[in-house]
């Protein structure tokens, strides 16, 4: 039975610094639904009454209700009012905790950013050129924008050392192919980015794990692995590592750079999350610029759909080999997406979006840490790494979560070695809003608690 609009415990004052007011109202409704304060069939207050309660104009509430209808949160019945909609869940995992993507920041609408950005691009560029072939390292304007974007991390970068790529995955695959070649060996962290492992499989390259401790790869382990296997290339993620969330200390970065120099190793520094952690130490590329290929992507800090990444080649190295390998893979980045990324960087929109993503990720991490206090994470990272007790079966946990509508990723997806640890990665950016994320995390925590009790009782 529907409850009347006297059910108003979900209404609270809007945050003056919380972004667009109509979106705050939608968030209030979504949070109340997720928390059970509003249930399917509950009637919302008339628009004018809610406007008076919140101290906003009627247009703001009208716009909020329209957006809530678009998100299938509410239904409108002519002559009767607006009601909380009956949930129509899609098939497959209902709440995805398996994909590392940046969360949508509060108060920023990607549709508005895209519309403004594309209008700006079309006002400045020839549309025929945007729809034509563009080969090479990228236009000077695009590489200058990339240099400006990376300056907080690397300092001043010569645009001639930059290559624009259609995403970090294609850049990593091109680097593995051009630097290692078929049937070679690449050194990696014991738990590594799945995209690197996929590139290694494609090139029939054998990944070899560099021994690590809780603080990351060991310098002596790097030396031993390089000598034992005759490897010349080492790929690592030094900041908010995926999946372990480890950030290497300045001392560990310096020690690894010294070993690389002594053995004349080439480093691939895959650094997708560095801009989420402004307090992190400088990249290894600043310590060993003569031997480091530095890869940075917009997909993990802004939005995956841009498919734009930047590669800084080692100082004194021509980018031609990388450009040739990329061309063989994907021919070119999509000119319109690259132009949009450049426009956002030049206009400051990218910096604002990054700030919003960082703040939203921090809020989500704070929520997650209360439920998973033993997990390893970074305060503005996109995931948590949750080790499991030695007697647990990670496959049972993943399958139980899947049956409950949750997707999480087992350690097998990241493991370079034959026997991965019992652990799962929990990603917090893919669920659209905090309220649903909190519900998903609470459900996962409850599953883990139940499994723990069963293991202790010897039931599982």
Automatic annotation (TrEMBL):
<dbReference type="GO" id="GO:0003677">
    <property type="term" value="F:DNA binding"/>
</dbReference>
<dbReference type="InterPro" id="IPR004839">
    <property type="entry name" value="Aminotransferase_I/II_large"/>
</dbReference>
<dbReference type="Pfam" id="PF00155">
    <property type="entry name" value="Aminotran_1_2"/>
</dbReference>
<keyword id="KW-0805">Transcription regulation</keyword>
<protein>
    <submittedName>
        <fullName>Putative transcriptional regulator, GntR family</fullName>
    </submittedName>
</protein>
<comment type="similarity">
    <text>In the C-terminal section; belongs to the class-I pyridoxal-phosphate-dependent aminotransferase family.</text>
</comment>
<keyword id="KW-0238">DNA-binding</keyword>
<dbReference type="GO" id="GO:0003700">
    <property type="term" value="F:DNA-binding transcription factor activity"/>
</dbReference>
<dbReference type="GO" id="GO:0030170">
    <property type="term" value="F:pyridoxal phosphate binding"/>
</dbReference>
<dbReference type="InterPro" id="IPR036390">
    <property type="entry name" value="WH_DNA-bd_sf"/>
</dbReference>
<keyword id="KW-0663">Pyridoxal phosphate</keyword>
<dbReference type="InterPro" id="IPR051446">
    <property type="entry name" value="HTH_trans_reg/aminotransferase"/>
</dbReference>
<dbReference type="Pfam" id="PF00392">
    <property type="entry name" value="GntR"/>
</dbReference>
<feature type="domain" description="HTH gntR-type">
    <location>
        <begin position="19"/>
        <end position="87"/>
    </location>
</feature>
<dbReference type="InterPro" id="IPR000524">
    <property type="entry name" value="Tscrpt_reg_HTH_GntR"/>
</dbReference>
<keyword id="KW-0804">Transcription</keyword>
<dbReference type="InterPro" id="IPR036388">
    <property type="entry name" value="WH-like_DNA-bd_sf"/>
</dbReference>
<dbReference type="InterPro" id="IPR015424">
    <property type="entry name" value="PyrdxlP-dep_Trfase"/>
</dbReference>
<dbReference type="InterPro" id="IPR015421">
    <property type="entry name" value="PyrdxlP-dep_Trfase_major"/>
</dbReference>
